[in-house]
Design brief:
- With 429 residues, the protein is α/β, with parallel strands linked by helices.
- Helices cover 35% and strands 15% of the residues.
- The strands form 4 sheets. The protein has an 8-stranded parallel barrel with strand order 3-5-6-7-8-9-10-11. Strands 12-13-15 form a 3-stranded mixed sheet. Strands 1-2 form a two-stranded antiparallel sheet.
- Strand 7, helix 7 and strand 8 form a beta-alpha-beta unit.
Length: 429
């Protein structure tokens, strides 16, 4: 997650003065109600093929022909940790966490610690809470090191010798049981699509690099998305594939270069997914403006949702932002994948504008352990005062395991911030 940059906003508003208005499949094999895609006891999940989501014009529908607007929340810092959200100290980002743990304890034990963390940060308690609040979707950020143990493309395998997708399998299965859609979001791609720490590694952006290594990273991204799309092909609980979170490479790239990179990168990933899954929605992010993505008709994109994120300090700017994005991409469904109303921006204004313009939306984020989060409108659940954080460089293996064990459970160490009831509840249904 990255604040909406002022210089990008200026470009956007200037371009908006001359805003152009451009003119705007058959089902796969039936969903197999097995333990792989259904519940753990073999019973069918809550979703059926009639719940499978597709786009038509600028709206999202299920196979019954009913319009669906997604109202959800991000599961930030579960599969990819971010400094202000996550319970760690002494290192700067998730890449640093992982490499430090590998150096200290070896690859296997490092991943054991991360598995402990992931087993406890989000549990069925959280999904029950999300369902009870009336949300119908979660966006699940992940990164490539959930599936590759290094930067050389070494796959993490399960006990049967296959690629280990246990956490994606689990979240899709458990959400399906509760009637909650899942957006699979590659928050951190191989080589990194942003120089921000939320992509996994601070000050690193090599996915678009014109080099042999850049091409290698792009090949890994193709491989990973191909495998994920093949695995969830036909699964109605998966709402869409979110190919890249906030692809920006802000360190060097201006708006023109960003649009060029986005168009080329997304065309490549779109093709990789469509080779194995022709039916799921694909979502592409307009970061930071509507002009960062071409009109879908010009590049041959079908069944896509365009996504924006917003972190700015004015109601006027928010309304203008969502309105102009809607006008520019008038024949494409839109989603606010992340947002937070800073400054004079109000929650009421955001929700009213998005409802009027038919945006789906995802809150950022469900829980966080940062200081003061027990009373923050950034999260639904904040860590209680006195929460312990793992010291990655100096804590023993056993101490990190303890701090990342059951004490991470929301029902044990976190409390309701009141944010949902204050600002969100009336807009969920």
């Amino acid at each position: 997650m990255k604040p909406f940059m002022k210089k990008i906003l200026c470009v956007f508003l200037s371009a908006a003065l001359v805003l152009p208005l451009a003119a705007g499949a058959a089902a796969q094999a039936a969903f197999a109600e097995t333990s792989e895609h259904g519940t753990s006891d073999g019973e069918p999940a809550a979703f059926t093929q009639e719940d499978f989501l597709v786009t038509k014009g600028n709206k999202i529908y299920n196979k019954k022909g009913e319009e669906v607007v997604l109202h959800g929340v991000n599961l930030g810092s579960w599969l990819i940790q971010e400094d202000w959200l996550s319970p760690y100290e002494e290192v700067q980002d998730h890449y640093d966490i992982l490499e430090t743990l590998i150096e200290r304890f070896g690859t296997e034990r490092a991943y054991e610690l991360l598995n402990t963390y992931q087993d406890n940060w989000i549990t069925e308690y959280d999904l029950d809470d999300i369902a009870a609040k009336g949300f119908n979707c979660v966006r699940v950020p992940f990164w490539y090191r959930n599936f590759y143990s290094d930067d050389n493309g070494t796959k993490i395998l399960n006990e049967n010798g296959g690629w280990d997708f246990r956490y994606l399998d689990w979240i899709v299965e458990k959400c399906a049981e509760r009637g909650i859609y899942v957006i699979l979001d590659m928050h951190g791609a191989p080589g990194f699509q942003s120089d921000a720490p939320h992509s996994g590694k601070r000050d690193s952006c090599r996915l678009y690099e014109d080099s042999e290594e850049g091409e290698f990273f792009r090949t890994l991204a193709d491989e990973l998305w191909t495998a994920i799309a093949a695995r969830f092909n036909g699964n109605p609980a998966v709402a869409m594939y979110d190919l890249l979170n906030e692809p920006s490479c802000d360190c060097d790239y201006g708006e023109v270069t960003r649009r060029k990179n986005n168009t080329a990168g997304y065309q490549r990933l779109y093709k990789a997914v469509r080779a194995v899954d022709g039916e799921h929605i694909i979502t592409l992010e307009c970061i930071w403006t509507a002009f960062a993505l071409p009109h879908k008709e010009l590049v041959g994109f079908e069944n896509v949702v365009y996504q924006v994120h917003f972190y700015q300090k004015s109601d006027f700017i928010f309304v203008l932002f969502v309105l102009l994005t809607k006008l520019y991409h008038f024949n494409t469904p839109l989603m606010m994948g992340e947002f937070y109303p800073l400054g004079t921006t109000t929650w009421a204004s955001c929700f009213k504008a998005m409802k009027k313009l038919n945006y789906s939306w995802m809150l950022w984020t469900y829980k966080a352990s940062g200081h003061g989060m027990w009373e923050s409108d950034w999260v639904l659940c904040g860590a209680k005062d006195g929460f312990e954080r793992a010291k990655i460089k100096t804590d023993s293996y056993e101490e990190i395991a303890r701090k990342w064990g059951e004490c991470l459970n929301t029902d044990k160490a976190f409390q309701d911030t009141g944010h949902f009831e204050r600002n969100v509840a009336q807009y969920v249904k």
